[in-house]
Amino acid sequence: MPQGPSDLTLALRELMRRPPALFGLFCCAVVLIWALLPGLFSPLDPLAQNLDRYLKAPGYVDVQGRTYWLGTDQQGRDILSRIIYGSRISLIVGIATVIVSGIVGVFLGIVAGYYGGWVDTVISRIIDTMLAVPFILLAMGLVAILGASLQNIIVAITIRTWIIYARVVRGEVFSLREQEFVAGARAAGCGAMRILLVYLLPNVMSSTIVVATLNLGRMIIIEASLSFLGVGVPPPTPTWGGMLAEGRAFLDTAWWIAFFPGVVLMLTVLGMNLLGDWLRDILDPRMKRLGD
After folding, report:
1. How far apart are the first and last CA of the chain?
2. Which residues pair with 264 in a beta bridge?
3. Where are the alpha helices (DSSP H) in the chain?
4. pTM for the complete prediction?
5. Can you point out the beta strands (E) in the chain?
6. Fewer beta carbons within 10 Å, N or C terminal of the chain?
7. 51: burial class by Cβ within 10 Å (0-12, 13-18, 19+)?
């Protein structure tokens, strides 16, 4: 990561020279602000129902003079307000799963890479077994067993997503454990845990941050997929995937119910991926050399 003013300045200059990364930063910032301050931007209550507003097109103005900029759904609820409040669920699930799976995956990856032998074999076999099960099916099964709630969805997604962190970190630690600074730490009498946390962990943080950033968009898509399939956060809590599912039945008559949440979901994930690409080029020396 950039550690001094000069490094930060170079990173910001690189950001300014890359319009896609700026666009990604803008998209992520908008969704983050929505999630943190939904009441400030939401024009109406996202749960308020009124059948007098049944399937009103974007721009509809009711008798009280309130404008529904993105229209209403089959229960007369404001689409824009539901999209804004739905961002909270997407970011909570995405950030929570990235943090928890990152902690678990980095720890297991460092342990497997440093110790090798039977420890590495056991962890690698667990990874291979988890990879043999389709992700969505595993998550759906766990949610069906545990019950549909925000916490259980985070658990269901985390149970599989730690793998990518473990594999990346394991490979890096394999090459780092024979470096001189690790040998020097051993010679100085440092214990294994100190070597793992003080000497190896900081050296794998750059790649971990890149993986986390690129993985965040994927987590949001998975949460939306579970909601779309009916095993996500239960109604009436607004979620982007749930809005897409509700809009399927009205694609011919009320296209805006599914269209606008789909566009926001697409732009959010695209923005995170573009921002992740920029971070990868900044933080990963190998990618930076290739770019040069």
Report:
1. 18
2. none
3. 5-16, 19-36, 38-41, 79-115, 117-131, 135-146, 150-176, 180-187, 192-194, 201-228, 240-247, 256-283, 285-291
4. 0.88
5. 60-61, 67-68
6. C
7. exposed
Q: Is residue 40 part of a domain?
A: no
185-199 burial, b at 16+ Cβ within 10 Å, e below that, comes to beeeeeeeeebbeeb
Please state, as a whole number, how many other Cβ atoms lie within 10 Å of the Cβ of residue 170.
24
Q: What is the pLDDT of residues 230-262, one digit of tens each?
A: 998 988 899 999 999 999 999 999 999 999 999
Say how far apart CA 239 and CA 232 lie, in whole Å: 9
What is the number of structural domains in the chain?
A: 1
To which H or E segment does residue 92 belong?
Answer: helix 79-115
44 lies in a domain? no
Boundaries of domain holding 247: 85-291
Residue 34 lies in a domain: no
The span from the CA of 74 to the CA of 126, in Å, is 46
* Residue 261: CATH number of its domain: 1.10.3720.10
CA angle 185, 174, 182 (to 5 degrees): 10
Burial class (CB in 10 A: 0-12, 13-18, 19+), 273: middle
Indicate the burial class of 267 (C-beta count within 10 angstroms; 0-12, 13-18, 19 or more): middle
Express each pLDDT in 145-175 by its tens digit. 988 889 999 999 999 899 999 999 999 999 8
